[in-house]
Structure formats: C-alpha cells, structure tokens
Amino acid sequence: MKPNPIHHSRRDFVKLSTAAIAGLSPLAGGIPAPVFAAGNDRFRVGIIGCGNRGSGAAANVLEADPAVEIVAVADPLGDRIEAFKAKVETLCQKLPGSPFQRLKLTPDTTFVGFDAYKKLLAIDPLDLVVICSPVAFHSLHLEACVRAGKNAFMEKPAAVDPVGARRVIAAGELAKQKGLAVGTGTQRRHEAVYLQNYRAVADGAIGKIVSGRIWWCGGDPRKVLERVEGEDDAHLMVRNWYQYVEMCGDHIVEQHVHNIDVANWFIGRPPQLAMGFGARTRRKLGNRYDFFSVDFDYGDDLTVHSMSRQINGCYQRIGEHLVGTKGSVMPGGKITGTGIKSKPDKDAANPYVQEHVDLIHSIREGKPLNEARGIAEASLAAIMGRISAYTGQVIRWTDLTERTDSPWYSLALKPGPEDFEAGPISIPPTGVVPLPGAA
Ligand SMILES: NC(=O)c1ccc[n+]([C@@H]2O[C@H](COP(=O)([O-])OP(=O)(O)OC[C@H]3O[C@@H](n4cnc5c(N)ncnc54)[C@H](O)[C@@H]3O)[C@@H](O)[C@H]2O)c1
After folding, report:
1. Which atom of ligand 1 is nearest the CA belonging to 51?
2. What is the pTM of this model?
3. Is any ligand 1 atom within 6 A of the Cβ of residue 183?
4. Residues 37-94: pLDDT tens digits?
5. Is residue 430 part of a domain?
6. Is the Cβ atom of 111 under 6 angstroms away from ligand 1?
C-alpha cells in the first residue's frame, strides 16, 4: 500500500468522503464556527500517550497535512517520550518533505505525569489533540479535551466498561454542540475497499444481510514487562496495561472492536444481545481471557458469530464476512455472488493517514467529523460479549444502555482513570478471573 501523498488531501477527501455516511455530524443550522486557528498556516497538534500508536499516529498526522506541527506531548512515563521522538524520526525518514522537522517540542510543552494531559490541554491555540493512551483513560481524556474546546482524535476502543462508553457518547454530543470534531481510530471506515463495499451493500448488492462471521484470531501481541527498581504499582500497571481488563477491556474489546465496528456499520445498528463463552488458559500475568466465542443477535433474525483469540501458534484470521439474500461480502475484500467486481486497490491511501486527512479536512471546512457514537457502540457491543462470556449469562444491549436497575448498567472497573491521578493504586492479582456460572 502506497503512503498517502501529502498534497492529495483534498482530492482524497472528496473521493473518500463517503466516510461521512457513518461518521459526519449533520450540519444543522446554528453549528458554531470551525474550531481551529483559521487563517494560520500552522495546524498545531498535541499527543496524549507516546507509545507505539502515539508515535505511529504522530507520523500519520504529520503525513496527512503539511501544515501540521506537533507542538506538545503528555505521558506519565518520561522514557516513553524519549523513545517517541526516536520512533517518529525513524517513521518520518520514509516520507517525503522532511516531516520530522515539524515535531516542535520544547521542555515547556513536554509534560510527564498522570495529570500531564491537563497541562497539555491548557495550551492555546491547539488545533487537534491525538489521544493514544491505554483504553481505560480514553473517556477521561476525550471528555477533558472537549471541555477544553479542542478537536480530538481518540484511538479505539472507547472504554473498558459501560460507564466509560456512555461517557464517550456524552463527550461526542458535547463536541457537536461546541462544533468540535472527534475521530476515533476506526481506520477501516476510511479505507477505500471498505468504503466501496459499504456503498455497494447499502445500494442492495448482496440483498438483505442475514448472517455474518467476524474474527480477530491472532497471537499474543505483548510482552510481560518486569517491575523496574523503585517502580510503583500505578506505573507498572500502565506499562503492562494490556494484561488487565481494567486497563484494556480484554482483547475482545481492545482488538476485536475493529471487526465488531465493521459489522455494526454495514448492518446499520448495534446488536441487541450477546451470548458467549471464553476462558483463560495460559496467560502469565493479569486477568484477561485467552479466547472468546460470542453470538451477537442483531434482531430481525440476524446473528453474527464472533471469534477472538490471542494464542501463539494457532491459525490466524482477522476480518469480517457478511452473507445476504443475494450474495456475500468480505468488507475488506471481495463481494461474491453478485457479478460486482470489488477488490482491494493496492494503490489506495494508507487508512491510518487517511483518517487524519478526513478529520483535518472536516475541521478546516467547519463540518466536524464526529465518530464518537460509532466507536462507543462498537465498544459497548464488545463489552456486552465479554460480560456474557465472563458470567455465562445472556446480556442485553439495554442492560448497558437503558436499564439502570441492571447490575451491568453501572459497571465501572476499578482502578478507574481518575484513580491513577489520585493514587496510590494496587495492581489486581494475577490469574483471578471471573468464573462463568459463578460470576
Ligand atoms: N487503530 C489501531 O489499529 C490501533 C493499533 C494499535 C493500538 N491502538 C490503540 O492505541 C492505544 C495505545 O496503544 P499502544 O499500542 O500505543 O500502547 P503503548 O503501551 O505502546 O502506549 C501507550 C502510551 O500511553 C501512555 N500512558 C499510559 N497512561 C497514560 C495516561 N494516563 N496519560 C497519558 N498517557 C498515558 C503510556 O505510558 C504509553 O506511552 C490503545 O487504545 C490501543 O487500543 C489502535
């Protein structure tokens, strides 16, 4: 796949503006003026969370628009910020136009600590904040960002629990009122082949969708990190965030949310209930399961089966397959049974860059993209599947969204995001996991 050429942002936006089908907020009358330093040839970006995706997203946003300057960073781990600079430099070496020169950090705009995000958000002007912290912090960071009047790009998923996901929906609604944009790291919604297939399916190419299968079956992507001398539980837990449901939501939420989001997008609604199972068999640290198998019932006789697994050495499959009354579609691949020719374009723009092209363009045009609800609903569906597997019960959508008397409605995992600022926190014990039938 070719990198997205810097000067093609507008053309690419027009070509791919069907991303708006699912994400753009309606342009009702009374929407406030665009929130960025208009007339200025600089587009100032701050990054919260300077790990792998933070550095990748930094290179992507620099590539997306030649006016972008990264002017501030925030992370509780100072060593991550040093590694971030080196990684962004390496990533930028492959790009035209020396984009690394537009990483313009100073000691005054480099913030370390669990409250570092607040200091970054106090910078003015700041045209966009890119949130790449661990999942548990997303709702806190997005809400703070919108309250501070900043456009946001928040990585997926929205949250680890229903309370956090509903907080993201509320932040998204507030963003609409304030004329702010929210992008959400759902790059498939900005990828040419997905958009082509979405359009064809929406136009009836495969008839009515009657069933589906979605997969994120891969290996275990993260190493367990040992405590460094003098390190407290809070810092060790965020370095190993991937191992704890309280931090990542388990892998059905953290990774598989992408495929659940595609199913929701193509079907046009979130599932009504989930029944699933899963287990932990061999993890060394933390409290996540190794695999999940969940039936998502979308109502109207439509069921999507979801499989997610993180075990090395097993068959790997990541993707989606939806079957309709007239044909079927792999949303990231081909449509079959209909005579329609649809296949991935190897020259298409890099979706990790395109999502920033689309977001920045929407901010400049005063038509702010708002993807908050979509990612919150995909995350809620994944959380619904996780709770079903953990408990062995059927979990309904309304348990997480409407029924305040449901035990799951007010589920807020602890430690929560604010607890890290208040400190101290204790790391949950390893291997203590919910037992279906007893949880
Ligand atoms: N869209 C995608 O395809 C994609 C791919 C990879 C990761 N992600 C998402 O990106 C996010 C980050 O993942 P990663 O792989 O970069 O993890 P990482 O561990 O490499 O980086 C996370 C960074 O956040 C920092 N951090 C921790 N707590 C913080 C806080 N309270 N405030 C600010 N920073 C904090 C950490 O110190 C670290 O530098 C996750 O939500 C993940 O799901 C998305």
Report:
1. 21
2. 0.93
3. no
4. 555 689 999 999 999 999 999 999 999 999 999 999 999 999 999 999 999 999 999 9
5. no
6. no
